[in-house]
Each structure stands twice: as structure tokens, then as C-alpha cells.
Amino acid sequence: MSKKLERKESNLLIISYSMADLLIQTIGIAFGAFFFIFWETEVGLNIWIVTLAYTIYAIWNAINDPLVGYLADRPKKFWSRYGKRFPWIMLSAFPAILLIIAIFAPPNIDPVSGEWVLFIWIVFFLCLYELFVSIFSLNHAALFPDRFRLDADRRKVGTIGRALILVGLALGSIIPPLLVTYGDRQSYATMAWVIAGISVILFFTIIPGHIETKEMKDRYISEQDNKEMVSFLAALKIVLSSKNFLALNLVFLMDALIGVSLVASIQYLTKYILLEEAGTSIIFMAAFILGALGSIFFWLLLAQKIKNNRKMLIIGVFLNTIFLLPFMFVHGVMGYAFAALLLGIGGGALRVGQDAALADTIDEATVKTGHRIEGAFMGVRTFFLRLALVIQGLIFTITHILTGFDATSDVQTELAQFGILVHTALIPMILTLIALVIFILVYKLTPEKTMEIKEKLKELNL
Known about the structure:
Blueprint lengths: L10 H32 L4 H27 L5 H4 L3 H18 L11 H33 L3 H29 L5 H19 L10 H13 L5 H9 L2 H31 L7 H26 L2 H14 L9 H38 L4 H30 L10 H29 L4 H14 L2
Helix pairs in contact: 1-6, 1-7, 1-10, 2-5, 2-14, 4-5, 4-7, 5-14, 6-7, 6-11, 6-13, 10-13, 10-14, 10-15, 11-13, 12-13, 12-15, 13-16, 14-15
């Protein structure tokens, strides 16, 4: 491996690269927190129609993410001048940002007589939004293992990235509730415009961290000139045959499910259990962020000390799962804030190790195949992360129906309130514990193994 490609990157470049995580999170949290409650209780659309739209979105997701990843890896003439990832990131950011507005500003028509018009609106803009978010996020993520080769840099990017994700969580969790008023549909559109404006400003901070070096561009051209390119089906086969990668992404899926379920459920919990206004949800998200930010650098020190990404992930997933349990038993605003604080602490441990472990699995596949196809890997990873939204939607729908949730009423029965707690914590906790057991049994990339892989990468000049 070239020494130039092994160089230590500056903190400013790492921060610029990681700002994209903040951008993605700011948009994603606002979307995840208010999408379901907006369409079910404000627009008044039948929950099964919302879920059907989510299902079509999932099918599109299954096709879109791996295909986008594969196409991003195909040789392009512009690689030598502009880079392999940078152009896609620049072209996809603004559409992804602006489409969040369309999702929260549907036509004001009757949700019964015009239910299928609204259905088409959701499907069209969800799929378009997903397309551009996928192009942006997977090219950002695919740049990571290629640009940052040193373990110390990878852990630093992971830690700074996770910290900025928490800042994005703050922006996406604190600003929207200040703008949203339950019962005022227009306030959701206003919220979307504000989030889009903030995201445009954030976009300009990510540019330096995503400009590829001359050495990287030269290597792209060398690789496409000297190696036979992998077909889409062959690339997909490589990804799906990587047991360590799939086991890791099962954990990522469950972590994403915990996140989207919590973010969306907090609005239901605030409105229907605590009988408070949307602004109260800020307290819970602030407690979560405080727990995560307050602990993340401790977890970084621990990760740097034990130098075992597998072990760090096991610790993080276990804590992130067990700390969901208090949500089932606490009461009142301060009780739920304490539960969110604990969950933030557990999540900090998971977030420190996950990026380094992901890079390890891609390095392993690169050695086995002789090809760097990060785009295909990130396409499958993005599919796993988006799938969490679909699972969350199904959980919400089934739970609400079984517990008698009434979207037309501000007062819910005790059973319906219990159902809110079930989709907040109980179901995500059970599913994640199952995923953790599978991960422990399947994932075999120990520090010794990853060291061998890095040596082979040097020999292959990859």
C-alpha cells in the first residue's frame, strides 16, 4: 500500500468529512420524528395506506440502494479530474434537502375522498427523496475506508462523526418541536422549510472533506485500466457472501430501528401519555444527547485501549439494548428524561466502534476479491438502514390497531398508551437482543485477523 495512502489526515479534514453525518442526521431526524404522526393524525390518512406507501418505498429501497452503489463504482471519465465520489455527493445533496419540504407539504385535500391522491404523493416523493439521500449517503460512506487507512484515523472519524451525529440529532430534535404545533398542519411545512435552510448552510462545510486526493484519482484510473470490472450481480454476490458484513449490518439495522422508533415514538408519548405540547419532547432528546456526548470520549479511550472493534461493538449493542428497559417502567417527564439519558450512554459505546468495524469488513472483502467495490457494500448497508423505517412503520401500524389507538382523539385508553411504550422500547429491545446473539456467533474479525488483512492490502497495493 502506498505510503501516501497511509498518511495521517488532519483534524480539520476529518471534521469536514464528518459534517456530512451531521447533515444527514439533521434531515433524517426531522423526517423520522414527524412523518408518521403528521400523516396519521394531522393529515388524517388511514394508517394502512401510510403503511402501504412505506411498503412500496421498501421495495424501491431494495432495488435502489444496491443499484446506486454499483453504478457509483462503474468507471467514469470524470474520475481523473473530479474524483469517484465527490461529484455524486455534490449533485445529490440539494435535491435530498429540498424534497423534505414536499413530504410535509402535501395538497390540502380530504383524506378520505382523496386518500389515493395523497397515497401517490407520499410514494412519489418518498421514493425520490430516498434516491437522492442514497446517492449522497452511500458515496459519503464509501469514501471512508478508502480515504482513512489508519485505525487511529478511522476511530477518530467514527468518534467525531458520532459526536456530530448527536449534534444533528439535537438540531433535528430541538428545532422542529419549537416550530410544530399539534393540530396545526401548516406548522409542519414551516418546520420543513427551516430544516432545509439549515441543511443548505451545513452543506458548504462538507466540501473540503470530500475532495479526493490526486493519489486516489490516479489509483482509480489505474484500477479501471488494469482490472476487469465486476458486474452488478457479481458485486452483489460478493456483498451477500460476506458473513461478517451481513452480521454487522444486522446490528446496524436494529440500532437504526431503536433510533427511528424512539424518535417517532417520543411525539406519541409526549402528546398522548404525558398530554404535553411538542416542545416537551426536547427534554427527552436533550437528555439522550447529553448521555451520548458525555460518554462518547470515554468510550473512545476504552476503544483505543482494548483495540478490539468486535468486543467494543458487543459492549455497545448490549448496553444500547438493555437501557431501553427503563422506558417501560418510569413515569412523568423526568422519568422518561432519565431513561433517555441512560440510552444515550449505551448508544455512545456502540457508535465509537461501528465505523471501524464496517471498514474492517470491507477490507476483508477487498482482499478476497481483489476489487474495491465500496459503493456496492454501502448500497446494501444503506438498504439495511432504510429498512428500519419500514419495520418501524409496520410495528406502529400493528401495535396501534391491536391496542385500539384512535388517531382522531387526543385521549387514549390505557391499552393504547401501553402500545406506545411497546413500540418505543419493548419490541426494538427484543429484536436487537436476537441480532446481538447472531452477531456474536457469526462475526469473526478479531484484531489478529484484521491485522493480517491490512498486511495483505499492502501486498496487493489496494
